[in-house]
Amino acid sequence: MSQNYTGSNPSFLTEPYKELPLHNYVEPISDNSLELDKVENSKEIRSSSVDETASTLSVADAIAQMLANLGVEYAFGVAGGAMASVWGALSNSTIEVLNFRHEAGAAFAASEAYFTSGRPSVVFTTAGPGITNSLTGLFAARGEGAKVILLSACTSAPQRGRWAIQETSTYTLPSGGIFTSGMLFNYAVTIESAAQLPQIFRKLALGLAQPGGFVAHLSIPTGVQTSLVEDISLPQLDVAPFRLTPAKEAIAKSVELLSAGSFAIWVGFGARDAADEIRQLAEKTGAAVMCSPRAKGIFPEDHPQFVGVTGLGGHASVLTYMEQQPPLRTLVLGTRLGEPTSFWSLAMVPKGGFIHVDIDPEVPGVAYPSAETFPIQSDIKAYVQELLQQLPDAPPRSTPLLLPCPERKEIAPDLDIDYPVRPEVLMAAIQKIIVEGSDAVVMAECGNSFTWSTHLLQFSQANRYRVSTGVGAMGHTVTGVLGAALARNGKAVAVVGDGAMLMNNEISTAVKYKIPAIWIVLNDARYNMCHQGMKVLGLTGADATIPPTNFAMIARAMGAEALGVVRESDIEAALEQAIASTVPFVIDVVIDPDRPAPSGARNKSLAAQGIKSSALKNPAKPVSFPAI
Questions:
Q1: Does residue 406 contact residue 317 with C-beta atoms inside 8 Å?
Q2: At what angle do helices 129-144 and 476-488 cross, to 10 degrees?
Q3: Alpha-helix runs per DSSP H in 504-615
Q4: What is the fold of 36-238?
Q5: Which of 193, 205, 270, 488 would bridge with 237, disulfide CB 3.0–4.6 Å?
Q6: Where does the Thiamine pyrophosphate enzyme central domain lie (predicted)?
Q7: Does an H or E element contain 341, and which?
Q8: How confident is the model at residue 609, as a pLDDT?
């Protein structure tokens, strides 16, 4: 998976590292060797002892101190008896502890806090179900490229295999994948002794310093948590961030390929700290720019060279560009080009292929294995900065280049259909009041909330729009919005469906900690992406309806402010009231369930993967990218 890098770093990450390959810190549950010789070209890790309180620290206290030294500011979780000592140590440290209602929500919030602040976050859980409940959120964190550390409790050695309460051991849970490094965790270890802590601290510091995401798991037996750290020097580490810079040969080859003809730029989430450089590159060369759903706003969507968003909820203008003004090559910056971004459409493959830049060397060429691809492993910002120095300006044009751009249809108010609310009208109001009228971060839940928001909202700044495409878990945004609002100390707005809101929300948590999150609920009494998708695919008999729910009433019962909106004429006033509020706020909008969401390309992709029906013999033209 591509693990994309944000430019912010904890305070101890201050100096650039030389170029080096990415590493997973693979460690069996019983192996705690540091293996620093495998980290090539890195600067020396400098450490000094901290002995003042070493003899009085418990393991739990030492872990809390280490995490604070690594730049952690927030810990999200659900407590329990098995991890009471760790919970207490975190609560008495400089780390702010937030007690959530479900571990998955805590993990989603931790991930979004990282993307907002650039600082690693902690998730804490008790044994047994505490761990397993958190796994979906941690899986999403790994896929999104977040830096998150899970602290969990496990059963102490003398009680293992004896059916302890919520027993967590190899007798009850598979060790592979949960307690060992692999696809879920970059680094995982069970702490059986305080003597392991210096090594673990160093490995965490190295992992957090590397580009891309880093998700770690420290499993701490209940009995070990209270054991004392005696005669052990806890290090203070000054680890510089690793920065992958492009090789000179890669830049020279890029200049050669890009100078051979027109090219387009395909921007991904991994390029989010290179927004200024990408704009300079586009304007220097006249290249058309498109972006993945996660990359909205990195290149201004109102720029004349922007041709649209690709993939799920994207714009048909992209395909128009590829058909009518095809580039010779496409420069891909920080995106995996996976199904949500490309639907693997061959129409997106230019004649000369791709120049694909990513920090993960395993990404280029995977989505389009048959396309000619020149791979470059590099930090996006460093690559574009160097390319700007070497690439010549495009020759002046006698006439301005006219590129297709996303169509922006004005949805006029219609008093005859004031109820229920058309989703297009709701999105226009969100654009006006939230996007243009405030500095709030906007987040969209998976499903039709994703496609409506991605297709219709327009951003001119990076880091103001967040969607999850790797896992696409329901509940990511309805809970993650707390992490974003907390970390930015300001408004974050979640555009969500009623299904996700019923599955896993954290309104109660927001009320407890006075977090100014806003939920805008698209209430249509359906899992409507499934309902509409089944209809388009011609598959009948499946039931995707939900009993009507009054989310405003539920929110008020939890202590939040809330409004129910059933008429289009009331939307803007409700949004203005929510933005002005200083407490958690829910806007429950009854929307027209029969308005077709811009997700036709998703149905096409499903059909191509084997979902067949007679209805697909003459499918209707999809309303989103790519129109094939």
A1: yes
A2: 70
A3: 507-513, 528-537, 551-558, 571-580, 600-608
A4: Rossmann fold (3.40.50)
A5: 205
A6: 259-387
A7: helix 339-342
A8: 59
* Inter-residue contact 274 to 380 (CB < 8 Å): yes
Phi/psi-derived region of residue 106, left when phi > 0, alpha when psi is between -120 and 50, beta in every other case: alpha
Residue 376: strand pairing partners: 357
Nearest to 185 by CA among 224, 119, 128, 137: 137
Residue 624's closest CA among 562, 536, 538, 505? Answer: 536
Q: How far apart are the first and last CA of the chain?
A: 27
> What is the C-alpha separation between 388 and 281, in angstroms, rounded?
6
Q: How far is CA 388 from CA 275, 382, 384, 392, 396, in A?
A: 13, 10, 6, 8, 17
Beta strand extents in 268-390 (DSSP E only)? 288-291, 306-309, 329-333, 354-358, 373-377
Residues of the chain with CATH 3.40.50.970: 36-238, 415-597
What is the CATH number that goes with domain 248-390?
3.40.50.1220
Overall residue count recorded for the chain in this entry = 628
- 101 CB neighbour count, 10 Å cutoff: 15
SS3 for 458-519 is CCCCCCCEECCCCCCCCCHHHHHHHHHHHHHCCCEEEEEEHHHHHHCCCHHHHHHHCCCEEE
> Which residues pair with residue 591 across a beta bridge?
421
In three-state secondary structure terms, 377 is strand
The pLDDT, as a whole number, for residue 21 is 32
Which 3 state secondary structure label does DSSP give 272? coil
Q: How wide is the angle at C-alpha 189 spanned by C-alphas 53 and 240, nearest 5°?
A: 65
Mention every residue, 6+ apart, whose C-beta is less than 8 A from residue 582. 514, 516
Report the alpha-carbon distance of residue 321 to residue 307 in Å, rounded: 7
- Cβ(152)–Cβ(219) under 8 Å? yes
**Distances from the Cα of 419 to the Cα of 233, 263, 370, 413, 416, angstroms:** 67, 46, 50, 11, 8
Write down the residue that tokens 């203070």 correspond to.
236
Instruction: In whole angstroms, give the CA distance from residue 455 to residue 461.
Output: 16
- Nearest Cα neighbor of 550 from 504, 588, 602, 593 is 588
- Average pLDDT by consecutive 10-residue portion of the chain (628 residues)? 38 33 33 32 36 69 95 96 95 98 98 97 95 96 96 86 80 84 94 94 94 96 92 74 91 97 97 97 96 98 97 95 97 96 96 97 96 98 97 76 85 72 96 98 96 96 93 93 97 97 96 98 90 80 91 98 96 98 98 86 55 48 42
Burial class (CB in 10 A: 0-12, 13-18, 19+), 407: exposed
Cβ–Cβ under 8 Å, residues 77 and 107 = no
The CATH superfamily assigned to 415-597 is: Thiamin diphosphate (ThDP)-binding fold, Pyr/PP domains (3.40.50.970)
Rounded to an integer, what distance in angstroms lies between the CA atom of residue 82 and that of residue 77?
14
Which residues of the chain does CATH 3.40.50.1220 include? 248-390
| pLDDT for res 601 | 56
Distance of alpha carbon 573 from alpha carbon 568, whole angstroms = 10
Contacts of residue 405, Cβ cutoff 8 Å, sequence gap at least 6: 304, 306, 307, 308, 317
Give per-residue burial for 123-159: e unless 16+ CB within 10 Å, then b: bbbbbbebbbbbbbbbbbbbbbbbbbbbbbbbbbeee
Per-residue tokens: 564: 């129910």
